[in-house]
Amino acid sequence: MLGGKGANQSIAAAKAGVPVLHIGRYGKADSWVQDQLQDAGVDCSRVAAVDAPSGHAIIQVDAQAENSIILFAGANHSFRAEELSDLLEGAVAGDWLLLQNECSCTAEMISTAAAKGMQVAFNPSPMDDSVRALPLHELSLLVVNEIEVQQLLDCDELEQDRLVAVLRERLPTTRVVVTFGAKGALWVDADTEIFVSALQVEAVDTTAAGDTFLGYLLAALCQQASPKTALELGCKASSLAVQKVGASVSIPDRTDVDQL
Asked: How much is the pLDDT for 137?
C-alpha cells in the first residue's frame, strides 16, 4: 500500500485543499506510486522513476492501535546536493517546503530553500542523532511527536511549562508543534503557547495519523489560518484517520473533516 511520510503528508495537504507539488523518487517497477499521488490531487511533475528499489517500510500495529515502523530508504536516498536548486525551480519567497528525514541531502535542502526565502517545515522522522546537526534555526516550523522531542532535546518527559521553556531556549526563532497522540497537540513560539486537545475516538490504527495531522495543519497555515485553527483542523483530520486501517488510504477528505 502507498505510504511513506512524504507521500502521506502530500496527500493530506492536497485533500485539505491546497496546491501540492511533490518532489520524490521511486523504483521504475512501481509506477502505481505516482498514480495514487496524482489521484489524490498531487502534482507529480517532479516525481521521478529511478534505477533503485523504492523506499518501503514494515509496519507493526499493536492491540492499542500504536505502530512500530522499520524503514528501507531505497530511492529516497538517491538525491544529490547539486540537484536541489533545480528541484525548487519556480518556488518563490513565502512558499512552504515540507521535509521529512526520509531523503538524502536534508541539511542542504533546508538551507537551499531558506536562501530562496521559502518557509521550511520539517518533520524529523525517522529521528536519529544526525537531526541535531541540521540547521534547525533556518526552519519556519518544526513538527515532532512526544518521543521525538525527547530525543531531540536529549531529555526525559517534561511537564508542559518546562518543555515550552526548553524549546524557546534551544530554538528561539523556530515555531514548534509537538503532537501527543490521543492527548492533543501543542504549538510553541517566542510569544505563543497553545494546546488543543484531540477528539476522543476509538482508534484502530494510528499509521499516518501524524502525517494526516501535519498535512492538514500546514494546509491551514497556507490558507492564513491562526495557529489554534490549524491545530484544531489537524486534530479533526487525524481523529478520522485513526478510525481506518492503513496509511494513505486512511487520510480523510476535507468535506468529511469539515462535517466533523
From this structure: 96
